[in-house]
Write a structure and sequence with these properties.
Chain lengths: ~325, ~325
């Protein structure tokens, strides 16, 4: 598959945006400036970027507790993301959702999710609606290796296949669910083995290689769009930081050497090396991109800092939608 | 010396589990991250090292199967402790809890018993947002067949947890996340606090506050403040919510003639409604004012601390509630 120069820069940009957003969020959390839990996506950037780079703006994705990367990759706005993480009124969820529920339905991003496994059935619903309307949209469910141990995943996978829906199951296999290694919680090594049980094709890709992820995603998304039904992509990847928070070394459940080994295959740096080697990019160009996006992050932090907190009267707002008077009037 | 030993709420839980595992080889624990890691709140620390992997089991992320493991293992003779990391996750396992655990004995004509304990952590105050902060106890208390406890301090935690484990019915132990670090004197020996027995946390004459878990502690703060104003609050901590110590609550209501019920859960449909209802059925003629219910507004738990601090009731809310009820007077004809 020929990946155009423009696309390569596009994928690179998505990854750098995620990295910068997450590192900034980590620093803010370290300084006690972010309330609540923080699950960072650093190390896994190639997965969200490679997959979302294969989607149209009106395609849908569902996400996980580790959801910032998915929103950024789908085109999320730094300002509103940062404000949400700080619990500000100008945030994506007006301060009501926070990191774990960050979402932008206008970008087709149907929410990070605090309940492991809960995103996959929702993606099935989006895929159903997409086919129902017949506009050729596709849905992608991002999910972790650990979440494939929960019933919701299996019900979603089976229903998607039974109904032959336009959906892609994109697994981020980072080998851990919280503080427990994968091998303690399942008897298989590859999540992709599960695909066969539901009757969908599945592939394993190097989740540290954005091009490999992207190629697999393009194929799966095309299959879904053309009516070929669901498929599963298992991206082997790694989270650099702890399950939540920003510690990365000295964790009792994983060896430091393992972290170091994965970091040698950093999805962004290896891709940059490759782009430069292939004459697609220059070091200067790459540095420029980082500098530009760094500026965006600074702007976002400033925006969030300057934003007001929601006022207590907002507690009761948006519990319900106003009753519909529009039945039958919507195209 | 030893009876002056202090433990945290979390350690008291841990000690109860440990002592029961020592006492009975049929007791085992299963849950996510509870083994090698000791649980995300540290409440299972050291147990796997002490009792081995076969008795402290790290499970997959599979809440329904975790509770099902408890149901199946208890009905066949073991005494499981199954952990659901956050109370919000009971929703994922609700069939096993509500349709299976709670009802098997009855449906089988009594020919089964389920000596299992479900442990979990509830409550807000950590900016953990709408899916990691809920107080869903009313849901569980509505289910015939279950017993539900929500301790407010380390001493009660240990005694109640031991009683839960020893009980031959499915019990649910709800730890409050914000109380895990609370420290108090806890006896070293194993002791039981009978399920269904409440506690007068503070005797008083003017008004009864019924409050449990973290709210019992907030009530204590409010009561100290109100005492300065000459209002003596009696604080009843039911400790067990199902079965509920109605006698203790009604007796107090008959003495003080005024009752404020407090919980962190959403007010509408919360346990406060049940308690208020029992009081009006059994002590109507003694009341000088309608029972006041304090609870969270009817919305999901908001993330931003700027909202959550106004969402969860606290000593200030209780103070205001008590002051208001003290103003009201029934004119007796
Ligand atoms: C139903 C449910 N059970 C447990 C949890 C607690 N929890 C949050 S993330 C997580 C691990 C998820 O592992 P995985 O799906 O592999 O995603 P990763 O964190 O590795 O990205 C767990 C157990 C939860 N949020 N929801
Ligand atoms: Mg994982």
């Amino acid at each position: 598959m020929e990946i155009s120069t423009t696309k390569q820069f596009d994928l690179h940009r998505r990854m750098v945006r995620i990295r910068l957003f997450e590192e900034a969020a980590g620093r803010l959390a370290e300084a006690n400036r972010l309330p609540g839990f923080l699950h960072l996506y650093v190390g896994e950037e190639a997965v969200a970027s490679g997959v979302c780079g294969a989607l149209n703006d009106d395609d849908h994705i569902t996400s996980t507790h580790r959801g910032h990367g998915h929103l950024v990759a789908k085109g999320g706005d730094f300002n509103r993301m940062m404000a949400e993480l700080m619990g500000k009124a100008t945030g994506y969820c007006k301060g009501k959702g926070g990191s774990m529920h960050i979402s932008d339905t206008s970008l087709g991003m149907l929410g990070a999710n605090g309940i492991v496994g809960a995103g996959s059935p929702i993606a099935v619903g989006a895929a159903f609606a997409n086919r129902y309307r017949g506009r050729g949209q596709v849905a992608v469910a991002f999910f972790g290796d650990g979440s494939t141990n929960i019933g919701a995943f299996h019900e979603a996978a089976n229903m998607a296949c039974a109904l032959h829906l336009p959906i892609v199951f994109a697994c981020e296999n980072n080998e851990y669910g919280e503080f427990t290694p994968r091998h303690k919680t399942m008897a298989i090594t590859d999540i992709v083995d599960r695909a066969a049980g539901y009757g969908m094709p599945g592939v394993i890709v190097d989740g540290m290689d954005v091009i490999a992820v992207h190629e697999a995603a393009v194929e799966a998304v095309e299959r879904a769009r053309q009516g070929g039904g669901p498929s599963l992509i298992e991206a082997k990847t790694y989270r650099y930081y702890n399950h939540h928070g920003i510690q990365n070394l000295g964790l009792k459940y994983r060896p430091d050497e393992e972290v170091a080994t994965w970091k040698q295959r950093d999805p962004i740096f290896t891709f940059e090396d490759r782009m430069i080697e292939n004459g697609v990019a220059t070091r200067e160009k790459v540095d420029e991109i980082w500098a530009e996006l760094r500026q965006d992050i600074e702007t976002a932090i400033q925006f969030a800092d300057d934003s007001p907190y929601p006022t207590p009267d907002q507690i009761m707002v948006d519990v319900y939608t106003k009753s519909s008077t529009t039945i039958g009037t919507k195209s | 010396m030893s009876d002056e030993r202090k433990l945290s709420y979390g350690q008291a839980f841990n000690e109860a589990v440990s002592q029961m595992m020592e006492a009975d080889p049929d007791v085992f624990c299963a849950g996510e991250d509870i083994g090698a890691f000791g649980g995300v709140f540290g409440t299972f620390l050291g147990l796997q090292a002490k009792f081995g992997e076969h008795r402290v089991v790290d499970t997959p992320i599979s809440e329904q199967a975790i509770v099902g493991l408890g149901v199946g293992a208890s009905v066949t003779g073991l005494r499981p402790i199954v952990d659901l990391m956050f109370m919000d996750f009971i929703c994922v396992a609700l069939d096993q809890i509500v349709n299976q655990a709670a009802k098997l004995k009855y449906m089988f004509g009594g020919e089964a018993s389920l000596p299992m304990t479900i442990t979990t952590a509830g409550g807000g105050g950590l900016s953990a947002a709408a899916q990691h902060s809920q107080s869903l106890e009313a849901l569980l208390c509505h289910m015939p067949g279950l017993k539900v406890v929500m301790p407010s301090n380390p001493y009660d935690m240990k005694g109640l947890m031991i009683s839960c484990i020893k009980d031959n019915n499915p019990t649910v132990m709800i730890k409050h996340k914000r109380l895990l670090g609370m420290s108090a004197v806890v006896p070293t020996e194993a002791y039981e606090i009978p399920l269904g027995k409440g506690n007068i946390l503070r005797p008083g004459t003017d008004v009864t506050i019924v409050a449990y878990a973290r709210m019992a502690n907030e009530a204590l703060i409010a009561a100290a403040e109100l005492a300065k104003e000459g209002i003596e609050c009696e604080i009843i901590d039911p400790r067990t919510l199902q079965p509920l110590d109605t006698d203790l609550i009604v007796d107090s209501a008959q003495r003080t003639n005024r009752v404020v019920v407090v919980h962190e859960a959403v007010r509408f449909g919360g346990l406060g409604g049940e308690i208020a209802s029992q009081i009006q059925e059994l002590a109507f003629d003694y009341l000088d004012a309608p029972v006041t219910r304090i609870g969270a507004p009817f919305s999901p738990v908001p993330f931003s601390p700027a909202l959550e601090q106004h969402y969860i009731p606290d000593a200030k809310t209780i103070l205001a509630g008590v002051r208001e009820i003290m103003q009201r007077n029934v004119i007796r004809g």
